[in-house]
Amino acid sequence: MLRHTLSILSATLLIACAGGAEAGRYADVAVVNRTTGETLPVYRHQGRYYVEGRAGDRYAIRLANRSGARILTILSVDGVNAVTGQNAATDQDGYVLSAWSNAEIAGWRKDMDNVAAFYFTALGDSYAARTGRPDNVGVIGVAVYREYVAPVPIAEPAPARSDTWGDAATQESAAPAAAAAGPARRAKALAEEKIGTGHGERLYAPTETTEFRRASQAPAEIIRIYYDSRANLVARGIIPSRPRVPQAFPGNGFVPDPS
Asked: What spans are recorded as compositionally biased (Low complexity) (predicted)?
C-alpha cells in the first residue's frame, strides 16, 4: 500500500552501533538519557531486553537504519503510537529513515515541527495511563518495514512453476509472528510501582511527509525493549543486586574488648 508518512529531517550518517542498542537485521533501537547523553545499558533476561529508567529523566529513542535502502519504523511507547496517539498497530504511520542513517525521537509527535518530551515517570502520570490505556506501560516497540522495489523486467519470463519469490515472501511474513510469540510473562512481586512515559514539554523536531510503499503486509522485524525502575529490575532478577564490599577503614578509635 502506498501512503504518506513522516520522513526524518535530522537524520545523520550512521557511524557505529551503540553498545546499548538492541540489534535487528534492518534496524537498531537504543534508549538515550537526554540529560547525560548516556545510551542506557541493555540487560537480557529470558529472551527479552530491558533498560533502567530513572523517574524524571528525559529520554529519546534512537533508531538506526542498518540497511542500504529506506525503511519505515512504526514507533510504539507503552502501547501507544508515538506519531498518531492511537493504540499502536503495525499498519499505522511512522518514521522513514534513509539508508545507513539514524535519528533520535525525543517525544510524542504533536505536529510537523514539535513533539512533547518523553520522560520516565510514575505509572499514574504516564501518557498512556492519563488517556485510559495503562495496560501496556513499560515497553518500547519498533515495527520495521522494507520498501517495495519494482522488479526489473527480464527478456524471457521465468516458468510459471518456479514461484520462488512468493514462497520466500510467505516464509518471511511468518517469521515475525513466530518471533513475537516469546515466553509467557512470569508473575513476580515488584519492589515499587512500575514507571511509564510522560507527556512533557514541547521540543522542536521538524519532519516532512514522504511516500512509502511497504514491501509486505507484515513487518520485516519487530524490536522490543522493556523498561522499569532499578528497584523493580533488581527485584525481578533482571539486574543483579550490588554485592556488599568489605571496607578496610569503617571507623576510628581504639581496640575494644569483644562482647
From this structure: 168-182
Query: Residue 210: which H helix or E strand, with range?
Result: strand 207-213
119-147: b (≥16 Cβ within 10 Å) or e: bbbbeebbbbbeeebbebbbbbbbbbbbe
Nearby residues of 212 by Cβ (< 8 Å), 6 or more positions away: 2, 3, 5, 70, 72, 96, 145, 147
Neighbours of 87 (CB within 10 A): 15
Over the stretch 110-131, which tens digit does the pLDDT of each residue have? 999 999 999 999 999 999 999 9
Q: Which residue has the cell 516464509?
A: 171
- Asked if pLDDT for residue 40 goes beyond 90, the answer is yes
State the average pLDDT for the chain. Answer: 83
Are the beta carbons of 116 and 202 closer than 8 angstroms?
yes
Q: Which domain holds residue 106?
A: 2-148+188-235
- What is the C-alpha separation between 200 and 120, in angstroms, rounded? 10
CA distance 154 to 240: 58
Domains identified in the chain, total number: 1
Does 250 reside within a domain? Answer: no
Q: What is the largest CA-CA distance in the chain?
A: 99
| Residues 43-57: tens digit of each pLDDT | 999 999 999 999 999
